[in-house]
Amino acid sequence: MQALEHQQRLFMVESDQIYRAWLDALHHARSYRYGMRWVSSKGRQYLVRLHDARGNGKSLGVRGADTEALFAAFSEGKERAEARLASLAARMKEQARLNRAARLGRLPNIVGDILLGLAAARMEHDFCVVGTHAIHGFEAMAGVHCRMELLASGDVDLLYDPRRQLSIVTRKLDGRGLLGLLRKVDPSFAPLNDQPFRAANDKGFMVDLVIPERDLRDAAEVTFGQNDLVAVEVPNLHWLVNAPKYDAVAVAADGRPVMMRVPDPRAFALHKAWLSERPDREPVKKSRDRAQAVLVTQMILSWLPAFEFDPARLRYFSAEMLQQAQSVLGQEADIRLPGLTF
Questions:
Q1: What is the average pLDDT score of the chain?
Q2: Which of 181, 260, 304, 328 has a CB 3.0–4.6 Å from the CB of 273, allowing a cystine?
């Protein structure tokens, strides 16, 4: 694990600031995307504010001085919003060039593309990255770079909280579902016949839609559209779905700043440590789980001191689970978790 140089840290801070400003400008500009138009009916013209791509909208009244003023203000606001977005997009492009020169690019471009697609659809907070790629977010939070062999992964896990209202996400996706969004990123994404929760592109990169295991009475499928991916229930993910979430701006391989929502790094480390001891876990995954748990724990202890391993802040874990995780991490000579006492 290597700390970032001063110039790299400066570029990370600037990337975070520019990305958040760009995202705000993007959302503002997209609020104008369906537009306003005059519609004729029974010999009169009405001003209609469109709400979706299918042409649905709401009438704002018959054409007159008031509606003419509304239309002019809308057109002016749209022009300003588009100009601001174009300016910040140019800054993002320049920052990406600087980030490449500073060797900050870490996150695979395909993951960056997916996360940017979610952000453009106002869904940056609807899904949480919980697999290996979450470590890129923790790196950004800590200002360090880890060994790439522990970060390599051919898939990304998107965790959805099934307690959220499905219809809200479905509307954001314009009825095209998560698969439709993935196909905007890469048209070759297709669901796997025997694994409806997973889509893969023609390069073999996979996206998994996962949810925590639910009560047997919750039988309804979690999906966001017709012929869309259907979430798979994964045991013991309730710990991660209940953990606090953080928005970290990482850097894609091509230098673009990308925001990703990740769980509390303590939750990630403890969950990975616990997974590494599960008898039903594949052996090849158990060793990787342990290595990632140790890596993130060391990162927290050295670079993220605000994240104390305090049981009072980890109440979403069971005492038994914390004991098992502590037993695994306590075997490392340079790891001591004094806060976890039972």
A1: 93
A2: 328
